[in-house]
Write a structure and sequence with these properties.
The complex is a heterotrimer of chains A (198), B (326) and C (557). Chain A is mostly helical. Helices cover 75% and strands 0% of the residues of chain A. Chain A is elongated, with a radius of gyration of 21 Å. Chain B is of the alpha+beta class and 326 residues long. A five-stranded mixed beta sheet of chain B has the order 3-2-1-5-8. In chain B, strands 4-10-9 form a three-stranded mixed beta sheet. Chain B is elongated, with a radius of gyration of 27 Å. Helix content of chain B is 35%, strand content 18%. Chain C is built from 17 helices and no strands. In chain C, helix 6 (208-239) packs antiparallel against helix 7 and helix 8 (294-307) packs antiparallel against helix 10 (337-351). Chain C is globular. The chains are: A mainly alpha (198), B alpha+beta (326), C mainly alpha (557). Chains in contact: A-C, B-C. At the B-C interface, helix 1, helix 2 and strand 9 of B face helix 3, helix 7, helix 8, helix 9 and helix 10 of C.
């Protein structure tokens, strides 16, 4: 048997391997999860250790509405991908747009919360340990939301130009993994900052 | 004063295998056990390696056939998994015992308490119960194993990380800001023990030397009495004292009983009771003292003491004054 | 018995203008070319970091030497360590991984060729950024210049208070940037190994080289990120007034150590696992036997990967952790010795009963076994925490980790260079020069790093620009420095051999070593598309099966 000349069909073997886009994205998510873990550990380590300044219980109020927006966007993105797989690009487009809108609303919520904290409560990244760890952790998450929205917007542009087709469903699904990760991280951050840390 | 306690260690005054204190002795015994085990492992594996490259080398008269292709053996794998696990367990148990001895021993009532504060690039010492502040040369009483009088040292830092390492008396422990540590020694032989800072702390990390003077009970008591005195006053050097007190010197240095109460640099009240200056970087002679005051960077480049820009006459007067601080 | 019957006809490309060739290399996404770019890049930095080491050793040849000032010395050891780890060893290993993994798996390229190129250029830029500090870091009063905070940059030495100017920022940003490159490469390796194997090559049938690089990539993904996180925190402290490591504001210097070593310890396994990969491929070929205990080797590798993430605070035994914490890290550190020892035994068992040929790659592998054994044993010594209260932060630990990195990893790298040079260049190297390199280098290595243990045992701490006479350290430091020149000579012979053989060596053929993995089934050097058609395999040694049709491996595996 000459290994170089036999084709897969001739060899008569089943040969299934996972999709490399999916594996690549899951690996990226693992790396990002490791970064977030360190920031979460730093946050938890410094709970209650600030020497002075505004404390969490004085200034934090849980952003319930904006959290619901962000977590709902996981649902809309899931439905969007499902629609695309079923062949409906129109439905995909509206659900995708809804996802972007919900994500943007969440960012708006973060922005208003930070505005209040900085100008009304006097909490900045250099005020005390709470300020440093809070803005770093929430900011790192926000940064990933921005990156995600950028990627989602690019897909939106392709959809509006009519270039997106049902055979792209797999790739879009891989991108949605990133978005689900961002939402998952928010659940952790929310718990650590607004529940445990307060 | 400068007797080396090195009768037991001709190789080096900082030899970790010449312990003179209980923590160092416990570590020494553990190290012998660990060396024996690792030495035995080395001999066995090296013999196997050497044997295999001799016995199984391709001979000149080789017949060109491949040797028997062996893929593995479960029994052999099991054997060389189980045996190392047993060795690891033994090593861990020996180690845990020494950790408990060194870290877990509480101070007896006869212990001397010292607070050591690490600075870039010198050591500050307080004896809170005895009311003494000094720098760079630590004095402790010798400890009789029958009636131990160990010294317990609390380790703090004023700036970056440092590490206190006097090998013959104990392992090293770090001085980290906002993270107080504790260590103890009970030297059983009088003499001078040497060491140095062992955690990179900046430019002059290399010359942050340690000198521990282990003294008999009488000598130690005498030293305490002397250190408790306020600064010696001598009218003959009043000019130098005036220069000292009206220049930037008092911003950093303390001379007790005078207006000088700076904290950034070593306490100079009993400067002349020390054998060295600049944390061991130079011997305490009038010449060296003068050179140091003129330009610290000439002796210890990167030291944080600024050059005083004094003229010759001021320098002579200053040095004469400092030479009276016994 | 070579497989030249399978070799494809060679066509020489017409000669082209230099600019066109350069452009091709700069824009390439071919894994083989990127592999070579990584290696060339690493060689340049090897020379630079080697010169840094030589200057360090000249300064330490005798007490109170004044060859360089303390400020320059402190920059030298910082740059030497940082350069060697991030811009020499890692690029060499990534270069080999990139070159060989698709070939060994029967694939045409890595899973993400453009990500591959991006990762290389990020790493390359990081190295340039680090060295730009020499000209660019001058802040206030000329403070700055190359970073001088040590390669692990402990807080609070790295705060604005104690590190004025921008030198620390160049360290931080250079590693941040190259960290992204490393993570990109790791993602590529994981995706390639899991998704691009040729038909028939199940995970249990792929070469150990692929397994070891897969676990290495997993470690990079999980453990470079903590360093990235810590560096972001450092930048926040230095530029946004943050207090992550600000002890005056209640912050912790120890937490930097934790974050750094959570990265730093797995990092040394990132460095050593590919070295294990080389040795696992080379020893069987020159012993004429398959690797002993393939499944156990895979299991041990995975075990090492997991355990390596739980030992980090053995770098912090002197920091003042509780005895419970110290005990935990003693156990985990000693535990990792078990799978590592298993590997050494399996390599020995591979040689046992074989017919060993002492070609240059095998010479370096045998030295690797000897030296890695010793390095592992000095590691165990330091795993006994109280012993480490002496040995840590002393020249003993400097000797230990150089024993691992030079005596282990660099020797394995040399073995790999000689073994795969014929495949990558199509030429044969000079065996005589190879041996000369080996003997010069091994003599120099042992002069330097054997005797370096002794000053550590006699109380000499690390990172000191000079030392006191009368501590018993003088003679040993002298001998250590002499060894450097032998090693330098060895490396020059090595580079000369590679260069001369590339231009004047005889043609090597596709399978000069009579080996068994897929890279030897194609041309030397392989064509851009690697294989004329994607192979189908039935065992771990596809070429053994072809050469021994009456007795193929799949009957025994």
């Amino acid at each position: 048997m000459n290994a170089a000349s036999m084709t897969v069909a001739e060899a008569r073997i089943e040969w299934d391997r996972p999709d490399r886009g999916r594996i690549g994205m899951l690996s990226l998510i693992a790396a990002e999860a490791a970064i977030f873990t360190i920031f979460v550990v730093a946050y938890l380590f410094y709970v209650g250790k600030s020497l002075a300044g505004p404390l969490p219980k004085d200034v934090l109020s849980a952003p319930i509405f904006y959290t619901i927006c962000l977590l709902s966007s996981s649902l809309t993105i899931h439905l969007a991908t499902k629609s695309l797989r079923q062949g409906s690009v129109q439905r995909f487009g509206s659900l995708w747009l809804a996802t972007i809108a919900l994500g943007a609303t969440f960012l708006y919520g973060t922005a208003t919360e930070w505005h209040r904290l900085i100008y009304h409560d006097g909490l900045t990244i250099s005020t005390n340990l709470f300020g440093t760890t809070y803005y770093s952790l929430v900011g790192l998450h926000g940064f990933h939301v921005v990156a995600g929205l950028l990627a989602l917007s690019i897909v939106m542009v392709f959809t509006l130009l009519g270039d997106l087709r049902p055979e792209h469903a797999e790739r879009v699904d891989v991108l949605s993994l990133y978005w689900h990760f961002v939402d998952g991280v928010w659940i952790v951050v929310f718990t650590v900052v607004y529940v445990i840390g307060r | 004063m400068a007797a080396f306690a090195d009768a037991a260690s001709p190789l080096s005054p900082t030899n970790i295998f010449a312990p003179a204190s209980t923590p160092a002795k416990s570590i020494f015994e553990l190290s012998l056990f660990v060396l024996a085990v690792t030495g035995a492992i080395f001999l066995v594996v090296f013999t196997l390696l050497f044997y295999s490259i001799v016995r199984f080398r391709k001979r000149a008269n080789d017949d060109g056939r491949e040797p028997p292709q062996v893929y593995g053996s479960n029994q052999v794998e099991l054997a060389w998994t189980i045996i190392p696990i047993l060795i690891v367990v033994a090593l861990f148990m020996a180690t845990a015992r020494v950790i408990a001895v060194v870290q877990g021993t509480p101070p007896p009532s006869t212990a001397i308490e010292v607070t050591a504060i690490g600075h870039q690039f010198w050591w500050e010492y307080h004896y809170p119960a005895l009311g003494i502040v000094t720098a760079n040369e630590l004095h402790v009483p010798v400890s009789d194993p029958a009636h131990p009088s160990p010294t317990f040292i609390k380790l703090l830092s004023a700036d970056t990380d440092h590490s206190f390492w006097v090998p013959r008396l104990g392992g090293k422990t770090d001085l980290i800001p906002n993270h107080p540590n504790r260590m103890w020694i009970d030297p059983q032989q009088t003499g001078v023990y040497l060491g140095q800072c062992a955690q990179y702390c900046g430019t002059q990390h290399a010359k942050m030397l340690l000198r521990i003077y282990v003294q008999s009970k009488e000598d130690f008591d005498r030293w305490i009495q002397q250190q408790r005195q306020p600064a010696f006053v001598d009218d003959a050097v009043s000019q130098g004292q005036r220069i000292f007190e009206t220049t930037a010197c008092i911003n950093c240095h303390t001379v007790s009983g005078t207006v000088a109460d700076g904290r950034f640099g070593p306490d100079l009240t009993h400067l002349m009771s020390r054998d060295t200056i600049a944390a061991g970087a130079a011997l305490n002679t009038p010449d060296n003292l003068r050179r140091w005051i003129l330009n610290p960077n000439a002796i210890k480049p990167g030291s944080l003491m600024p050059a005083m820009e004094s003229n010759d006459q001021e320098l002579d007067a200053l040095t004469a004054y400092l030479e009276t601080l016994r | 018995m070579s497989t030249d019957a399978l070799a494809l006809p060679r066509t020489e490309p017409a000669s082209r203008p230099v600019v066109a060739s350069l452009h091709e290399w700069v824009t390439t996404v071919d894994h083989k070319r990127l592999g070579i770019l990584y290696m060339m890049y690493a060689m340049v930095f090897l020379l630079i970091a080697g010169i840094e080491a030589t200057v360090i050793r000249i300064q330490l040849i005798r007490p109170y030497n004044d060859f360089v000032s303390p400020q320059v010395f402190n920059r030298l050891f910082t740059m030497h360590g940082t350069t060697m780890i991030f811009f020499v060893v890692m690029p060499f290993l990534f270069g080999f991984a990139n070159y060989l993994i698709p070939l060994m798996l029967g694939a045409r390229d890595m899973a993400f060729p453009r990500l591959n190129a991006f990762s290389f250029w990020m790493t390359a830029f990081g190295g340039l950024l680090l060295y730009f500090s020499l000209v660019g870091a001058n802040g206030l009063y000329g403070a700055g210049n190359a970073p001088d905070v040590g390669w692990f940059a402990y807080a609070p030495l790295t705060s604005r208070t104690f590190s004025v100017g921008h030198s620390t920022d160049f360290w931080t940003l250079a590693l941040l940037v190259s960290g992204f490159g490393s993570i990109g490469t790791a993602i590529n390796i994981v995706a390639t190994v899991l998704c691009m194997r040729c038909p028939g090559m199940t995970l249990a049938k792929m070469p150990l080289f692929a397994w070891l690089n897969l676990v290495m990539a997993g470690l990079v993904i999980l453990c470079i990120s903590p360093l990235t996180a810590a560096q972001i925190m450092l930048v926040v402290d230095r530029y946004l007034g943050g207090h992550f490591f600000d002890t005056q504001a209640g912050g912790s210097a120890v937490i930097w150590m934790h974050f750094f070593w959570v990265f730093g310890h797995p990092e040394v396994y990132v460095l050593v696992l590919p070295a294990f990969a080389f040795v696992s491929e080379i020893i069987p070929v020159f012993s004429r036997k398959p690797i002993f205990g393939y499944s156990v080797m895979v299991g041990a590798t995975v075990a090492i990967g997991f355990i390596s993430m739980s030992v980090w605070a053995h770098h912090m035994f002197t920091v003042g952790m509780s005895s419970a914490a110290n005990n935990f890290f003693v156990i985990s550190t000693m535990a990792i010795a078990v799978p590592t020892g298993i590997k050494i035994f399996n390599w020995l068992a591979t040689m046992w009963g074989g017919k060993i040929e002492f070609k240059t790659p095998m010479l370096f592998c045998i030295a690797f076994l000897f030296q890695f054994l010793i390095a592992g044993l000095t590691g165990i010594m330091q795993g006994a925490a109280p012993f480490d209260w002496h040995l840590g932060s002393s020249y003993f630990v400097v000797a230990h980790f150089h024993y691992v990195i030079v005596g282990g990893i660099v020797f394995a790298l040399f073995a790999a260079f000689y073994y795969w040079f014929p495949k990558m260049s199509g030429k044969t190297y000079s065996e005589t020069l190879g041996r000369l390199h080996f003997w010069l280098f091994i003599i120099g290595f042992h002069l330097t790093f054997d005797f370096m243990h002794i000053p550590g045992l006699l109380g000499m701490p690390r990172r000191i620009y000079t030392y006191e006479p009368g501590r018993g350290w003088d003679t040993w430091n002298f001998i250590v420095t002499i060894g450097v020149f032998f090693q330098a000579a060895g490396i020059l012979v090595f580079l000369g051999n590679l260069a001369w053989s590339y231009f004047r060596g005889t043609a090597a053929g596709s399978d000069p070593w009579d080996a068994w993995t897929l890279e030897w089934s194609t041309n030397s050097p392989p064509p851009a598309y690697n294989f004329a058609s994607i192979p189908v395999v039935k065992s771990r040694r596809p070429l053994w099966d072809l050469k021994h049709p009456a007795d193929p491996d799949w009957n025994y595996e």
